[in-house]
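Form 7-S
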Amino acid sequence: MEITWGILIVIYLFTAGVSAGAMITSNLALLLGGNDFERVSRWGAFISPFPISLGLGVLLLDLGSPFNFYRLFMTLQVRSPMSYGSWAILLFTLLSVVYLYLWLPQKFQIIGETKSLEQWKKRLAKVIPFLSVGVASYTGLLLNAAARPLWTAPLLPVLFLVSALSTGAATVILFSALSPWQRARHRELQLLTKADALLIVLECFILLVMIVMGRFSSLSIAEAYGSMIYGQFAMIFWFLIVGLGLIVPFSLEYLELKEKISVRWTLPVTIGSSFLVLFGGFFVRYIITFAGQWSRWF
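Output:
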């Protein structure tokens, strides 16, 4: 079976999700938490532009003719997921840079008055989440349109969205816990950890529903899911995604929330659980991309 979408596409799918998730984390922390969650909001804003920029660079390399990339923006084809998705990602990337600027320390803000910039920060925080949801779920919609058995699942965009929220939150937790500057307070990290734990549970539920629906669908779709749960991709699915990417980080976060971990181990556990969430999120996209291309219609 020919594989046309390789590891570079997986990196692009993953980084777009991380950026969208980090942005939504920042926006919700600002709008719902205000000054109490300012550090989480700031780190989400600082992180967001960089993963997706890396992903776009990798995507250009994968195209083979990177200088033709501009052709995607010559027209807007409403019925093409790739067309409106490309525009959404471009707009998201530009706005994420603007949003980052609004969060810079005042001495680095050379354009605009402080009061005006604060107003724009909240205005953007109300608008960008809708665009972020589009960016996070767009890749699932793009795969839906490719008409491979594994990619026909209607819940695929939802899976990518929930995974993006989880990996975005984990990235914010990781940076805000490690940084000696603007380190997040315990209350901020605790609430963010609780949100991520709930997202992991939701992601497990979506995967379960997708597998059950797939196994009771047509022979082609059932075989595609079979390759994930007992076929050549089973090790990746059960060990790397379900085990290391979902169960282990959820268990660590649960122990953190229940204060079952001593103070000396809190930071290593936080780093470990956040890294494993990112690890699992990457391999979710890996297995969907590769197993989807392996699957075929009978």
